[in-house]
Amino acid sequence: MPGENLSRDEARERAALLSVDGYEVSLDVRSAVGEDTGNGPRTFRSVTTIRFRCNEPGASSFADLLAPSVTAVSLNGRDLDPSEVFDGSRILLEDLSADNELVVDAQCAYSRTGEGLHRFVDPEDGEVYLYTQYEPADSRRVFANFEQPDLKAPFRFEVRAPEDWTVWSNGVGERQDGVWRFAETKPISTYITCVVAGPYHRVTDSYERVFEDGTRLEIPLGALCRKGLAKHFDAEDVFLVTKQGLDFFHDHFDYPYPFGKYDQAFVPEYNLGAMENPGLVTFREEYIFRGKVTQASYEARANVILHEMAHMWFGDLVTMEWWDDLWLKESFADFMGSFSLVGATRFTDGWITFANRRKAWAYRADQLPSTHPVTADIRDLQDAKLNFDGITYAKGASVLKQLVAYVGQDAFLEGARRYFKRHAYGNTRLGDLLAVLEETSGRDMGAWARSWLQTAGVNSLTPQVVLGADGRIEELAVVQEASVIAPADHPELRPHRVAVGLYQRSQVGALERYARAETDVAGARTVVSELAGADAPDLVLVNDDDLTYCKIRFDETSLATLREHLGGLTDPLARALCWSALWNLTRDALLPARDFVGLVLRFAGRETDIGVLQMLHAWAESALVHYVAPQWRETGGRALAGGALAELRQAEPGSEHQLAWARFFATAASAPDDLELLKGLLDGTEEIAGLEVDQELRWAFLEPLAAHGVADEKVLTTELARDDTASGKRHQVRCLAARPSAAVKARAWEQVVDSDALSNALVEATIAGFGQASQRELLAPYAPRYFEAIERVWTERSIQIGMDVVRGLFPALQDSPETLEAADAWLAAHEGAAPALRRLVLEARDDLARALRGQACDAAAGTSAG
């Protein structure tokens, strides 16, 4: 049998043969507590009964299971020899009947990589916490099943756990005779089943809704976290957003929440942001804030809560048939997250964050050599794992935002309502959604889908302005091009519904819109006749109000205006769009990176939107590390640190802007005086009015001190004693790996690449500390070692750890043609390597090539300026 990487063809063949009536899963996790014997992996007992039908009696198929051992297998009352039918990933099922019952008794392994049933020991109190995470195909690490989204079935779970634990699953549960038994679920896919177990802290609430027909819905609400985080847990805000979201989706979807209760568990060492398990959503516990954070962090958490809630309909109630149509859940949830955020919560500027942050993710992904249509070609499970990317999420959501403008909001939502009712508890493809949208909008959705869903790449839109003798606009056109650096086989020019805004400077220096026109852009050049005769603009903003998905370019006059007056733009969304466009110009080597850094230094201090400000800080750091000419890095670093410190001192005491500038100053600090200030802020000998240096900020200050050799192992050990928690341990591990020592780097490399002793969270922390931009020479020996090791790592480790290592340790800081040649040589010599591994290397190689182009652009600008 082919192994654990299930292919699309195999899944289709199995779905055509089998249908599943139900699962009964019994887990015994009492082995999670107690000392580790050290004899192989720590395991738990898993007994699964599957009732299923076969429409070709006598045929053969297989069930999925990843387990160290299988004790017994029974098919239709016949005992099968596990050594003959189980190969470590699949159970061979021969001579099937029309109606079948499969019973599998296995010893499954607890996970330390966040895949399957993850076991975490809290260093603060020694308590053990369990949770499951499956997407796309890790439920087979916990129980035997048919691991594909279109073989839905009801599930009934029971769990034996330590006496002092509580256990949760998708359905309502209660403890009887020492066993937790849970109500049977509705038909759902394997990847959204869930178990959470341990001494979790839990807060409860309830949601009530009376519908127009008089029916009443009550949903029990729960919010869980580790006991050690309980003092930081603001469950009331989680419940507030939850209730606002449920109201919003009930108002717009006309389909009551279908899964009974609604628990939300914040769990440790989580690989994702969150997961939409019906009735038991899981989140990374970093969404519980241990220190002061900006409103952008609360907005991000609210968006994730609403994103996962949207999945209850888009993904859980109606599920894609195979991972090709992953967008049918993720794009919709990403769009609905922002749509409901703005429509139902206090975060009414959510579309600014979407334009500035989410779309930046999409634009990067859509210019990689691995770009793909929103509806992707997913050949197997490894492909599926990598396609949880900026295209499937943020580009898909951007396209849906465009679709709402195209068909109208009412038609879009009515299409959603019909889609839910028509396909409830079923599986769908692209055509199923297009069919209802054609019904409700009256439009032919085929051409739209071909342009926006079935082609890849991002277009750029540039204004062309011709002024008449009277100084007014004679003609304004929008020129559309494929990406400056686009894959050759994705030259698509798409239809866009855009708003074109004209801006002028006022007498007080404000840059304000005085004219706007909406138009349909199609083909290479479109004339916007509505703006003919308007006064000459200082700035033309194509895609004003962010109606479409494109990269904005500027004419020469507009770019010159932004260079001098960007801070005068009064509309925060327009300002965010301009910043995003300038960053894209920088990444495309069309704007020198030092110019972008200069714009941040000049205008970021006037930015009112805290999320945009924090994004600017991240972009400025990236520009300095990757895109400026190497000879300018030191100068640019001093300028960024000096500018950040000036803004920090000028910010309103105690404000979130002060906090953001403090964190940015820490990332930029490298000069002795700056490091001394950080050290003084930590030990109390320095003070900045209003700045509270809480525990999280202490760690933020300690990392640059460690990276520059000011904070040694003793200092970091002392800090861990001050913050002896799981979060503190992650911070300490990152800081330890950041120290500028050859021995430190060797130890970090060995722990991540040559050993599997670290958990997923500590692997992530070690990688983050290892790659310090100030330590390029120290890291140089690891470039050849990286290319020697990655195929072995990919083969030996789980896909999550493999992805972390291949992405995180790529020698991007060795930004030279030689490193590019080494990546090309590896790709040429490993044409037979796993496609998913090659994709990761190809993406990292492309980022490096882009950085080198940016550095050349910046160096040329420096030469001409000199």
Write the layout of secondary structure elements.
Blueprint: H1 8-17, E1 18-28, E2 43-54, E3 61-64, E4 69-75, E5 78-80, H2 82-85, E6 90-93, E7 99-109, E8 116-121, E9 128-133, E10 155-160, E11 166-169, E12 173-176, E13 179-182, E14 195-198, E15 201-210, E16 216-225, H3 235-253, E17 262-267, E18 274-275, E19 280-284, H4 295-311, E20 319-320, H5 327-344, H6 350-365, H7 381-386, H8 391-407, H9 409-423, E21 427-428, H10 430-441, H11 445-452, E22 460-467, E23 473-481, E24 496-505, E25 511-521, E26 525-527, E27 539-544, E28 551-552, H12 556-565, H13 572-587, H14 593-603, H15 610-627, H16 633-650, H17 656-668, H18 672-683, H19 695-707, H20 713-722, H21 726-738, H22 742-754, H23 760-770, H24 776-779, H25 782-796, H26 799-808, H27 817-829, H28 835-865
Parallel strand pairs: 1-10, 16-17, 17-19, 20-21, 22-28
Antiparallel strand pairs: 1-2, 2-7, 3-6, 4-5, 4-7, 8-9, 9-14, 10-13, 11-14, 12-13, 15-16, 18-19, 22-23, 23-26, 24-25, 24-27
Helix pairs in contact: 3-4, 3-5, 4-5, 5-8, 6-8, 6-13, 8-9, 9-10, 13-15, 14-15, 15-17, 16-17, 17-19, 18-19, 19-21, 20-21, 21-23, 22-23, 23-26, 25-26, 26-28, 27-28
Protein model, in words:
By secondary structure, this protein is an alpha+beta fold. Helix content is 43%, strand content 20%. The protein contains 28 helices and 28 strands. The chain has an eight-stranded mixed β-sheet. Strand 8 and strand 9 form a beta hairpin. Helix 3 (235-253) crosses helix 5, helix 4 (295-311) crosses helix 5 (327-344) and helix 14 runs antiparallel to helix 15. The radius of gyration is 28 Å and the shape is globular. The relative contact order is 0.06.
